[in-house]
Amino acid sequence: MICVSKKKSYPKSENLKIFGQGKLNGIVEISGAKNSALVLLAASLLTNEKIILKNVPRLTDIEKMGNILKNLGVNLVERNNKLQIDSKNISIKELPYELVNGLRASFFCIGPLLSKFGEAKVPLPGGCNIGSRPIDEHINGLKALGAEIIIEEGIVKAKIKGKKNKLHGTHIKLKCPSVGATETLVMAATLAQGRTTIENAAREPEIQDLCQMLNKMGAKIYDSGKEKIIIDGVNKLSGCTHKVIPDRIEAGTFLIAAAATSSSITIAPVIPHHLEAVTNKLQESGSKITIKGNSITINPRELKSVDISTAPFPGFPTDLQAPFTALMTIANGKSKITETIFENRMNHIHLLNKMGARIKLRKNTAHIKGVKTIYGMDLVGSDLRSSAALIIAGIIAKGSSKIYGLEHLDRGYENFESKLKILGIKITREFNKNTFTQSEFKGGKESEDTEKYKVA
């Protein structure tokens, strides 16, 4: 979300300076999926043999997860975008708060640690402040698998009940198709005794990637990508080599940036069916989409307003809601953007309005009337996807913009500004040691529609 408190100050150490009204042209190389790589790193804890992960994006979130594994005793060797992971000497089963804080994906480690060692202590997870993301489904599922769990002073303490020191297969029905809960429970069930079924499971490509790697390691997982996943527990898992799938969110962000600037680009490598919800909406809004093998080419035409509503896969991804909102600010006509996944993920609206957009926010639906021009400003992004949306807004705006809060952007986009530069955008990362306060920004009073929503 976007920080707008007048009392808050921000480090001016880094910002992106963007010269607006740019055009993109060329081919974008899409990196490995952050959300897949993070859970695959956690899954490596399930074996004593070496795991080699290829196509791992170089991101601050990946670095944090790597530090967590090293703290547990994992030997990690990095070269370019390849990680060699050796977990045979794990000696600590408790994750330190100072490493876990701010990385929600760290909670994925609870399933492998519990299943392999019979116990685990994991601090409650952090991450972007975009709304409530409870871990009830994780906890209830682990209890159903035979774990005793208590939460004390922000620490989740889990232990397998009984003398066997082994989880047992069971039937789990999730109340909602939680991606994190599905991944946690799949990993925990791989070494459980007997069969586990997970109903109402999430179907995201990142879950399918996890299950594919686990099966390479010797797991017996069936029907990943469907609403019911079946896992037959095995005694042990072995090492493997696995390539992380392309990042569908990064791919979608570049397609949206191209549509916003009436630019033709090609993105590759991608798995096109992972992006169907996005490419369908881009086609509906006036772009021509051409799919050839593992590449997608976009040729935008007149930009028309379309409505979207976020939904679990295969629906429109919540992680692309903010970038798509930036696109709709300059579309012809009126559009509605509805966020159904996170209740506090519409706070980029206020700064888009300051740039000249015409958006009214009612509950979690943005009502947008397209304008011909938005204007460059100095802006602060304080969550990952809103930061990407602000950069897209800066690219299409008249004049120049400075985007701060790059610690969020660097969590999820590998070499974002470098890729934009290659495509022809005038964008520079600036460094200095000053700080600034919100009062330095241009712009008028917040609208009543914005004030109803919580901001950092």
UniProtKB/TrEMBL annotation:
Swiss-Prot/TrEMBL keywords: Cell cycle, Cell division, Cell shape, Cell wall biogenesis/degradation, Cytoplasm, Peptidoglycan synthesis, Pyruvate, Transferase
Primary enzyme class: transferase
Taxonomy of the source species: Bacteria, Bacillati, Cyanobacteriota, Cyanophyceae, Synechococcales
Protein family per UniProt: Belongs to the EPSP synthase family. MurA subfamily.
2-(S-cysteinyl)pyruvic acid O-phosphothioketal, modified sites: 128
Domain of life, source organism: Bacteria
Catalytic reaction equation(s): phosphoenolpyruvate + UDP-N-acetyl-alpha-D-glucosamine = UDP-N-acetyl-3-O-(1-carboxyvinyl)-alpha-D-glucosamine + phosphate
Record-given protein name: UDP-N-acetylglucosamine 1-carboxyvinyltransferase
Protein source organism: Prochlorococcus marinus str. MIT 9201
UniProt pathway annotation: Cell wall biogenesis; peptidoglycan biosynthesis
